Each structure stands twice: as C-alpha cells, then as structure tokens.
DNA sequence: GTGGTCTAGACCACA
DNA sequence: GTGGTCTAGACCACG
C-alpha cells in the first residue's frame, strides 16, 4: 500500500495518514487482522516523526479502525457492527459536499455516477 | 437565513460560517446577486469577532462563491459554468466519506438513497 | 483547586491530572462552564511539560468532561445525559475493587459506609 | 476457573491475569490453600509468554494474595487479618469511580444497589 | 523491539 | 495569547 503525504497541505500530517489508512481499509488494500507497520518503521519510511505516526494510530484506535495488540503491534480491526444508520457527522459532511457539487453544476445523476465509481473501488469484506 | 455556530466544535468558526453560506446558496436560501450582510453586521449578529467573518468572506470570494464589490458589499456570485467535471478535491473528500461509510456497513444502495434525500433539498437555480 | 502529582507513581502524569480534574468536577471544586487554566499556565504551575497537560485536556475533551472553546480556552462541560445505566467498564472496575475489599476483610456494610462517605463529598450539580 | 484475556485491551496482560485471580479468590472460585497451576502450565493454557504469568504471580505474591513455595508451587494465601480499615489506594480508586458515576448521573442509591449485587457474588470464606 | 510517556523547543492557525 | 501540530531525543513498561 502506497501512502503519500503532502507536507504543504492544510490538513495535519497525522490526519492525512489517518485518512489514507481508512481508505486503505475500505478499498481492501489493508485486510482485517493485517499487521500494520510499526510506528517507527512507518515514520522512517515517510520521513516524519514517530510521534506523528503515533498520533495517527491513536486516532484510528480510538475510532475503532485498528486495534493495538501488545504482542504484535497494530492490526486492522474486525468489521464494525452492521448498523446501516449513517452517523450524523457523515450526513453533515455529505451535505456540504453535495451543496458544493450542486453549485459547481454537477447534477444528481452525475454525482450518483461518481459515487458508484468510488464504491466500486471499495472491496471491504464484511464478516 | 439562519446561521448557527458551535463554539465547541473542532472546525474553526470561519469555516463553519463558510460552510453554512455555501449550503445556503445551494439550498436557495441565498439567491445569486443577493446582497450579504456587512462583515461588521454579521459579526455582531453572531456575537463573534469581525475578523472571523472577514476570513470566511475572503475564503468564499477566493473560491468564487461570492463577489466583493467595495461599493455594494458582498453578494452571491452568478452560477458557475455548467461543467460537470467534479473537482479533484471534491472527489477526494467524497472518497473518504464513502470509505468510512463502507466500513460502517452502509452499502451503496443506502448511501445513494441518502444522497437523493440531500439532493432534494438543493434548489439552486442554474442560470 | 489543588492538584498534586506524584512523579514517582506508576500512573502517567497526564492520567493523574485527568483523574484529579474529574474528581474536581464531581466534588464541585470545578463547576460547569468554569474556565480551566490554560495549558501553558497549568504546566508551569505543576512544573511539567505543556504537552502533558495538553494530553490530559485532550482525554477529558474526548470523554466529554470538558469542552474547548476556541475563544476562551477549556471549560467544564455541562452535565451528561441523565442516563442511570452504569457503563460496563465502571462495573468491571467496581467488581475488582469489591473483590479486593472482600479479601482484605472489609464487609458489605463497611464498604457501603465508605461509599456513603465518599458520595457525601460529591456536590456535582445536575442541571 | 476460567480466565479470559483480551489481547487488545489497554490493561497489560499480567494485570488482567492478576485481576482475574483476585476476583477468583474473592468469589470462591479459588479457595485458600488451593494450588495454582504452574507458571509454564498456565502460560501454555493461555497461549502467552511464561514471563507474563511470572510477573502476575510476583505481583500477587508481593500483595499477599498468594504464597510461593519452591517445593509445592504457588497457592492461595490464607485470609488476611480481619482489619476493616480500607487501604488508602482502595479508597482512592473508589473515589475516582464514584466521581465518574456521579457525573454520569448515577446516584448514590443506584450505586449502592450495584455494590450489593456485586457483593452477593463474593463468597470468600473468612477463616 | 514494540508502543507509551515525557521533555524541550518551535511554528502556526485561530480569534 | 490560545490550543494544535510537529520535531528530536530520551526513558520505560510490556512481552
């Protein structure tokens, strides 16, 4: 799995890292129970500080995406509860995106097609 | 149009303000050519610093959502060109949302239904 | 409110700090909406690093005990939802304490008396 | 007696083990003078490192819960003196729990009922 | 060798 | 001036 960070971006490094790992899980690039690289290893590979990676891992752990096994380091968590109720935050973010898309002139059909395309990349295996 | 800010939120105040104005434009609460309140006026109404409102307006101007005329104040821009190519940033944000939704167990059908519901609230009038 | 940290303790400094603030809220030493000292201020007062205080605040924020207002710093959150269902973690911790007490020879009556005494110190004002 | 360890937990494995043995003693699952499994035996059963079990036993010995006889292995200690003075550590832990419960909205009555329920599971036989 | 904790010092976004 | 972020380097608990 390839991770690319933009040092000049507005979004913090740890958040970029978190986002890319989430996408990696959803797309199947990282499968459940897969071992993630160690904090130091990933920090070296990316050329950033270990605490930055540590913070990203802590976020992901707190959000339930990964779990820390003291014996073998971090690994991808098993799937969430299959509760198909979208969280209000997700809905709020989606509303903003749809508003922006609407103003840009992207209609519902075009947007849904884009969603379909993005969904087709997701290979996350529900248990 | 009602604007409500959450002082305890993670997202900066100016960004909350920007987001709500964008949603206001898309939903039709603010129509093109409509004059926005003065920086000072809005700051007083919301009980926040004028610089914060200023920054939100500057963002919106830089993104093309509003135009600032020194004589008449800020007003909503005319609609964009009807170019149905989604911006890469929008696609990136949408990808992250879809990834999170997928892991949460929200399938494509459920997601599309949510999009439809949100689109139905948008009444932005294409010129 | 007095905060005393034990540098030689097993428990991390940020956790000691977190615990004492929680107790402070419950005992009424800190009332809801009260402004907490700034990260740097408290760090100086306690003679520890600002990031340690920062981490304690981040924990408390994440657990809902305090809220960060970008304009005025950290303040004690309003009360939680009045849901009288004890969390499983709390029950687990309590079970261990009661087990230890039992082995030490502290009976149910003695224990309940101790609880009463501790509860009487709590002046947390439900809204 | 059943021991279940959570590898992903925050609490160290040796501490989980220690806690469960303490609870086992208090509930009567382990009776005084009962012989505990060998370090190596228990480590194999649980699928963990022998040093981890060793550390748990060392803790329990140091706290007086078990006695280690080089000839006969580890066995549960005889009951403590019936001194109903709670240790300051226990009181401190209990204070934190009660503070959290108070903020969660759990009142004294509800808490006392929970204690009663937990006490009823304890069958530790005072000598 | 792993993650967790702590320190010291720096810069920046926010208000 | 506030909290948030990042860095570099150190020590320790855990397994």
Largest sheet of chain A: 2 strands, antiparallel
Quaternary organisation of the protein chains: homotetramer
Number of helical stretches of at least 4 residues of chain A: 5
CA-CA gap between termini of chain A = 22 Å
Q: Judging by the overall fold, what is the CATH architecture of the largest domain in chain A?
A: Orthogonal Bundle
CATH fold label of the largest domain in chain A = Arc Repressor Mutant, subunit A
Largest interface: A-B, 44 and 45 residues
Percent strand of chain A equals 5-15%
Q: For the record, what is the CATH homologous superfamily label of the largest domain in chain A?
A: Winged helix-like DNA-binding domain superfamily/Winged helix DNA-binding domain
Portion in helices of chain A = 40-55%
Q: Would you identify the regions of chain A where 5 or more consecutive residues have pLDDT less than 50?
A: none
Mean pLDDT of chain A: 90
Helix/strand-derived category of chain A reads mainly alpha
Main-sheet strand order of chain A equals: 1-2
Order of helices and strands of chain A: HHHEEHH
Shape of chain A: globular
Number of strands of chain A: 2
């Amino acid at each position: 799995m390839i991770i690319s960070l933009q040092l000049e971006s507005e979004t913090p490094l740890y958040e970029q890292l978190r986002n890319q790992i989430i996408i990696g899980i959803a797309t199947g690039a990282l499968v459940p129970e897969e071992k993630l690289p160690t904090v130091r290893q990933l920090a070296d590979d990316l050329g950033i500080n270990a605490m930055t990676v540590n913070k990203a891992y802590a976020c992901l752990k707190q959000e339930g995406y990964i779990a820390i096994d003291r014996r073998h380091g971090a690994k991808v968590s098993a799937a969430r509860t299959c509760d198909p109720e979208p969280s209000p935050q997700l809905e709020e973010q989606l509303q903003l995106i749809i508003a922006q898309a609407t103003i840009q002139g992207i209609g519902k059909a075009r947007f849904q097609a884009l969603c379909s395309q993005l969904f087709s990349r997701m290979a996350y295996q529900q248990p």
